[in-house]
Design a protein that fits this description.
By secondary structure, this protein is of the alpha+beta class. The chain is built from three helices and eight strands. It is globular.
C-alpha cells in the first residue's frame, strides 16, 4: 500500500495541478505513469447475480490525450487486458503549479477519490474493444478511449452514498494512473 501511495504522490506532483480562475483543476506538467482524463463515462452496469446486491459488472470509458513524448505514448498504447490502473480525483489548492517534495503531499493538493480499475482494452474508431493479439488500429488522432472494469463492490457503496446525497464519484475523475506491470 505504501508503494501505491508513493506512486500517486509522485505522479500527481509531476502533473502540477493548479486552480484556474473558475476554480477548476488543470494540469501544467506531465508524468510518465499518469495522464489527465478528458472524459469519463460509466457505460455498463450489469444486473446483479442471483442473491447478490451489487452489479455483476461495471464498465467505464476513460478518454485520454496521448499528445505526449512518443516513447511515453507508446507505453500508454501498450496497456493490455487485465493491467491495473487507478482513477483519481485531485483538487488543486493553489493557482501556482509549483510543488515541493519537502512539503507534505496533502498540504499541496487534495486527493478526493482514488479507485482501482482493470483494463479491458482500447476502443477502436467504431467504439469496439480492440482484441488482444490483433494489430492496433491506425488512430487518426492522439485521443484514446480505454474501456475499464470497475470494482463492483466499491461501485455499489459509492452509488448508495450518491443516493443519500453525496456527489457522484464517477463524475469527478480527472487522472488515470498506471503502474509498472509485473510481467513474467
Amino acid at each position: 500500500m505504501y508503494e501505491i501511495r508513493q506512486d500517486v504522490e509522485d505522479a500527481v506532483l509531476r502533473l502540477c495541478p493548479f486552480l484556474t480562475s473558475d476554480q477548476s483543476t488543470q494540469f501544467s506538467g506531465w508524468a510518465r505513469m499518469a495522464l489527465p482524463v478528458s472524459k469519463f463515462t460509466v457505460v455498463e452496469v450489469a444486473k446483479p447475480h442471483v442473491g447478490k446486491n451489487h452489479p455483476s459488472r461495471v464498465r467505464a470509458d476513460a478518454t485520454i490525450n496521448l499528445d505526449i513524448r512518443r516513447n511515453i505514448a507508446t507505453e500508454w498504447d501498450s496497456l493490455r487486458k487485465h493491467d491495473v490502473c487507478f482513477l483519481l480525483t485531485i483538487d488543486a489548492l493553489s493557482s501556482s503549479p509549483t510543488y515541493s517534495s519537502r512539503k507534505p503531499f496533502l498540504e499541496q493538493v487534495r486527493l478526493r477519490y482514488l479507485r482501482g480499475c482493470e483494463v479491458e482494452g482500447y476502443l477502436d474508431e467504431e467504439g469496439r474493444v480492440v482484441a488482444e493479439g490483433f494489430e492496433k488500429p491506425d488512430y487518426k488522432t492522439r485521443m484514446r478511449t480505454v474501456r475499464l472494469y470497475l470494482d463492483v463492490n466499491q461501485y455499489q457503496v459509492d452509488m448508495e452514498k450518491t443516493i443519500k446525497g453525496s456527489e457522484d464519484v464517477y463524475e469527478t475523475f480527472n487522472i488515470i494512473m498506471r503502474r509498472k506491470p509485473k510481467r513474467e
